[in-house]
Amino acid sequence: MRLEEIEVVVTDHAYDRYCERVGQIERQELHEQLQQNITERDCRYKDGYCKIGEVWWACAPAECLLILITCLGETHIDIPAAKRWERQHRDRVNLGDLANW
Q: Closest Cα partner for 6 from 54, 47, 56, 59?
């Protein structure tokens, strides 16, 4: 499947967290921005997390959908790597704090 064929679904919770953690934006504008980032291949997915543009999301991929469950915000930290580290060291990474780094 080509990236252009994937449709992004932004849940209400994900939209609210985006507005809180990244900035206010109209829902339609956010959707268009996300679709453009995906079409331009400015995205990556791993272990239930995706980075679209500069923003990390918890997501659930489906057949031709990418369902964004919550917005984790903008951070330089590799979220999937941080979660792996957390499991390996039996520690806890507070994802809520990552958006403020």
A: 59
CA distance 47 to 85: 13
- Per residue in 2-43, pLDDT (tens digit) is 667 889 999 999 999 999 999 999 999 999 999 999 999 999
CB contact at 8 A, 40 and 66: no
Spell out a b/e string for 18-37, using b for 16 or more CB atoms within 10 Å of the CB, else e: beebbeeeeeeebbeebbeb
Write down the pTM of the prediction.
Answer: 0.80
Residues contacting 38, CB < 8 A, separation 6+: 3, 4, 6, 8, 52, 66
For residues 1 and 36, the model is more confident at: 36
